[in-house]
Amino acid sequence: GENVEQHPSTLSVQEGDSAVIKCTYSDSASNYFPWYKQELGKGPQLIIDIRSNVGEKKDQRIAVTLNKTAKHFSLHITETQPEDSAVYFCAASLSSGYSTLTFGKGTMLLVSP
Amino acid sequence: SAVISQKPSRDICQRGTSLTIQCQVDSQVTMMFWYRQQPGQSLTLIATANQGSEATYESGFVIDKFPISRPNLTFSTLTVSNMSPEDSSIYLCSVEVLRPSTDTQYFGPGTRLTVL
User: Fold this and answer.
1) How far is CA B46 from CA A74, B68, B79, B93, B102, in A?
2) What proportion of chain A, given as a percentage, has pLDDT over 70?
Protein backbone atom coordinates (compact mmCIF):
# COMPACT_ATOMS: atom_id res chain seq x y z
CA GLY A 1 0.00 0.00 0.00
CA GLU A 2 0.86 3.68 -0.10
CA ASN A 3 3.39 5.10 2.36
CA VAL A 4 3.81 8.84 2.95
CA GLU A 5 6.85 10.29 4.69
CA GLN A 6 6.71 13.88 5.96
CA HIS A 7 9.55 16.17 7.11
CA PRO A 8 10.31 17.95 9.30
CA SER A 9 8.28 16.85 12.30
CA THR A 10 8.62 20.32 13.85
CA LEU A 11 9.44 23.65 12.26
CA SER A 12 9.99 26.96 14.03
CA VAL A 13 10.15 30.20 12.05
CA GLN A 14 9.98 33.91 12.72
CA GLU A 15 6.95 35.85 11.58
CA GLY A 16 7.41 36.94 7.99
CA ASP A 17 9.75 34.08 7.10
CA SER A 18 8.85 31.30 4.67
CA ALA A 19 8.15 27.72 5.73
CA VAL A 20 8.54 24.59 3.61
CA ILE A 21 7.22 21.13 4.48
CA LYS A 22 8.14 18.16 2.31
CA CYS A 23 6.47 14.80 1.69
CA THR A 24 7.41 11.75 -0.30
CA TYR A 25 5.10 8.96 -1.39
CA SER A 26 5.74 5.41 -2.49
CA ASP A 27 2.93 4.49 -4.90
CA SER A 28 3.55 5.96 -8.34
CA ALA A 29 -0.15 5.47 -9.13
CA SER A 30 -1.18 8.09 -6.54
CA ASN A 31 -2.53 11.16 -8.26
CA TYR A 32 -4.15 13.37 -5.63
CA PHE A 33 -2.23 15.21 -2.91
CA PRO A 34 -4.08 17.36 -0.35
CA TRP A 35 -2.68 19.33 2.56
CA TYR A 36 -4.56 19.80 5.82
CA LYS A 37 -4.05 22.24 8.68
CA GLN A 38 -5.12 21.14 12.14
CA GLU A 39 -5.34 23.68 14.93
CA LEU A 40 -5.45 22.58 18.54
CA GLY A 41 -8.80 21.06 19.42
CA LYS A 42 -10.14 21.15 15.87
CA GLY A 43 -10.55 18.81 12.94
CA PRO A 44 -8.20 18.95 9.94
CA GLN A 45 -8.99 21.73 7.48
CA LEU A 46 -8.18 21.34 3.79
CA ILE A 47 -5.95 24.26 2.76
CA ILE A 48 -4.76 23.30 -0.70
CA ASP A 49 -4.57 20.25 -2.95
CA ILE A 50 -2.90 19.28 -6.20
CA ARG A 51 -3.47 16.63 -8.81
CA SER A 52 -0.82 14.82 -10.78
CA ASN A 53 -1.47 16.67 -14.03
CA VAL A 54 -0.27 19.92 -12.44
CA GLY A 55 3.23 20.77 -11.20
CA GLU A 56 2.38 23.72 -9.00
CA LYS A 57 -0.66 25.38 -7.48
CA LYS A 58 -0.87 28.63 -5.57
CA ASP A 59 -3.46 30.21 -3.31
CA GLN A 60 -2.39 33.56 -1.84
CA ARG A 61 0.46 32.81 0.62
CA ILE A 62 0.25 29.05 0.17
CA ALA A 63 1.66 27.00 -2.70
CA VAL A 64 2.16 23.32 -3.36
CA THR A 65 4.65 21.80 -5.79
CA LEU A 66 4.63 18.26 -7.12
CA ASN A 67 7.47 16.26 -8.67
CA LYS A 68 5.96 13.02 -9.96
CA THR A 69 9.27 11.64 -11.17
CA ALA A 70 10.81 11.93 -7.73
CA LYS A 71 7.49 11.17 -6.00
CA HIS A 72 7.61 14.13 -3.69
CA PHE A 73 5.48 17.19 -3.05
CA SER A 74 5.96 20.23 -0.86
CA LEU A 75 3.94 22.91 0.91
CA HIS A 76 5.29 26.44 0.83
CA ILE A 77 3.95 29.16 3.11
CA THR A 78 5.28 32.67 2.54
CA GLU A 79 5.11 35.67 4.88
CA THR A 80 4.19 33.44 7.80
CA GLN A 81 1.95 34.80 10.53
CA PRO A 82 1.39 33.58 14.11
CA GLU A 83 -2.04 32.26 13.08
CA ASP A 84 -0.27 29.86 10.71
CA SER A 85 0.92 27.96 13.80
CA ALA A 86 -0.69 24.52 13.65
CA VAL A 87 0.00 20.92 12.68
CA TYR A 88 0.11 20.35 8.93
CA PHE A 89 -0.59 16.96 7.33
CA CYS A 90 0.13 15.90 3.79
CA ALA A 91 -1.74 13.01 2.21
CA ALA A 92 -1.81 10.99 -0.98
CA SER A 93 -4.47 8.96 -2.72
CA LEU A 94 -5.39 7.25 -5.94
CA SER A 95 -8.40 9.27 -7.00
CA SER A 96 -10.90 6.99 -8.69
CA GLY A 97 -14.23 7.98 -7.18
CA TYR A 98 -13.26 6.27 -3.92
CA SER A 99 -10.35 8.13 -2.42
CA THR A 100 -8.61 6.49 0.54
CA LEU A 101 -6.16 9.01 1.91
CA THR A 102 -2.81 7.98 3.36
CA PHE A 103 -1.49 10.65 5.70
CA GLY A 104 1.99 11.71 6.66
CA LYS A 105 2.86 11.93 10.35
CA GLY A 106 2.42 15.69 10.48
CA THR A 107 4.56 18.80 10.95
CA MET A 108 4.08 21.11 13.90
CA LEU A 109 4.71 24.65 12.64
CA LEU A 110 5.38 27.35 15.21
CA VAL A 111 5.52 30.95 14.00
CA SER A 112 7.00 33.31 16.56
CA PRO A 113 6.05 37.01 16.53
CA SER B 1 -17.24 22.15 0.54
CA ALA B 2 -19.37 20.55 3.27
CA VAL B 3 -20.33 21.47 6.82
CA ILE B 4 -19.91 18.51 9.14
CA SER B 5 -20.94 18.22 12.77
CA GLN B 6 -20.14 15.51 15.30
CA LYS B 7 -21.76 14.60 18.59
CA PRO B 8 -20.58 14.42 21.27
CA SER B 9 -17.65 16.80 20.96
CA ARG B 10 -15.96 15.06 23.90
CA ASP B 11 -16.71 12.42 26.47
CA ILE B 12 -15.15 10.63 29.41
CA CYS B 13 -16.19 7.00 29.68
CA GLN B 14 -15.56 4.04 31.93
CA ARG B 15 -13.80 0.96 30.60
CA GLY B 16 -16.10 -1.76 29.39
CA THR B 17 -18.80 0.63 28.22
CA SER B 18 -19.66 1.71 24.66
CA LEU B 19 -20.01 5.12 23.05
CA THR B 20 -21.82 6.00 19.84
CA ILE B 21 -20.53 8.99 17.88
CA GLN B 22 -22.78 10.74 15.40
CA CYS B 23 -21.71 12.49 12.21
CA GLN B 24 -24.08 14.78 10.31
CA VAL B 25 -23.31 16.54 7.01
CA ASP B 26 -25.25 19.39 5.46
CA SER B 27 -25.48 17.83 1.99
CA GLN B 28 -25.92 14.39 0.53
CA VAL B 29 -22.65 12.52 0.11
CA THR B 30 -21.89 9.03 -1.09
CA MET B 31 -18.76 8.27 0.88
CA MET B 32 -18.20 8.88 4.58
CA PHE B 33 -15.07 7.87 6.44
CA TRP B 34 -14.17 7.33 10.10
CA TYR B 35 -10.64 8.01 11.35
CA ARG B 36 -8.85 7.66 14.67
CA GLN B 37 -6.20 10.12 15.77
CA GLN B 38 -4.29 9.08 18.86
CA PRO B 39 -2.73 11.87 20.96
CA GLY B 40 -0.03 13.68 19.00
CA GLN B 41 -0.31 11.25 16.10
CA SER B 42 -1.49 11.22 12.51
CA LEU B 43 -4.85 10.07 11.20
CA THR B 44 -5.58 6.38 10.75
CA LEU B 45 -8.55 5.25 8.68
CA ILE B 46 -10.90 2.94 10.58
CA ALA B 47 -13.51 2.27 7.90
CA THR B 48 -15.36 3.59 4.89
CA ALA B 49 -19.14 3.86 5.08
CA ASN B 50 -21.01 3.81 1.79
CA GLN B 51 -24.75 4.35 2.05
CA GLY B 52 -26.70 1.18 1.44
CA SER B 53 -23.85 -1.26 1.96
CA GLU B 54 -21.75 -2.68 4.75
CA ALA B 55 -18.83 -0.60 5.94
CA THR B 56 -15.37 -1.56 4.72
CA TYR B 57 -12.85 -1.87 7.54
CA GLU B 58 -9.10 -1.30 7.34
CA SER B 59 -6.57 -3.79 8.61
CA GLY B 60 -6.53 -3.84 12.39
CA PHE B 61 -10.12 -2.66 12.83
CA VAL B 62 -13.10 -5.02 13.15
CA ILE B 63 -16.84 -4.58 13.04
CA ASP B 64 -17.42 -6.05 16.50
CA LYS B 65 -15.25 -3.33 18.05
CA PHE B 66 -16.28 -0.44 15.77
CA PRO B 67 -19.77 -1.05 14.37
CA ILE B 68 -20.84 1.62 11.87
CA SER B 69 -24.25 2.61 10.61
CA ARG B 70 -25.03 4.63 7.47
CA PRO B 71 -28.80 4.94 7.32
CA ASN B 72 -28.91 7.78 4.75
CA LEU B 73 -26.78 10.09 2.63
CA THR B 74 -26.24 12.73 5.35
CA PHE B 75 -25.65 10.72 8.54
CA SER B 76 -23.43 8.03 10.01
CA THR B 77 -22.59 6.66 13.44
CA LEU B 78 -19.49 4.96 14.82
CA THR B 79 -19.72 2.95 18.02
CA VAL B 80 -16.63 2.25 20.10
CA SER B 81 -17.50 -0.95 21.95
CA ASN B 82 -16.21 -2.46 25.17
CA MET B 83 -13.82 0.44 25.62
CA SER B 84 -10.39 0.30 27.21
CA PRO B 85 -7.96 3.15 27.98
CA GLU B 86 -6.19 2.36 24.68
CA ASP B 87 -9.29 3.61 22.87
CA SER B 88 -8.68 7.14 24.17
CA SER B 89 -8.33 9.12 20.94
CA ILE B 90 -9.92 11.72 18.74
CA TYR B 91 -12.44 10.15 16.39
CA LEU B 92 -13.05 12.04 13.16
CA CYS B 93 -15.55 11.60 10.41
CA SER B 94 -14.95 12.91 6.93
CA VAL B 95 -16.97 13.07 3.75
CA GLU B 96 -15.93 12.89 0.16
CA VAL B 97 -17.25 15.71 -1.96
CA LEU B 98 -17.16 15.07 -5.68
CA ARG B 99 -16.29 18.05 -7.81
CA PRO B 100 -15.54 17.91 -11.51
CA SER B 101 -12.32 15.89 -11.75
CA THR B 102 -11.70 16.24 -8.01
CA ASP B 103 -12.38 13.97 -5.05
CA THR B 104 -11.89 15.85 -1.82
CA GLN B 105 -12.37 14.92 1.82
CA TYR B 106 -13.62 17.36 4.42
CA PHE B 107 -13.40 16.60 8.11
CA GLY B 108 -15.67 17.14 11.06
CA PRO B 109 -14.46 18.75 14.29
CA GLY B 110 -13.79 15.42 15.97
CA THR B 111 -14.93 13.66 19.13
CA ARG B 112 -12.39 13.58 21.96
CA LEU B 113 -12.78 10.35 23.90
CA THR B 114 -11.10 9.60 27.20
CA VAL B 115 -11.52 6.13 28.67
CA LEU B 116 -10.75 5.68 32.35
Assistant:
1) 27, 10, 12, 10, 23
2) 96
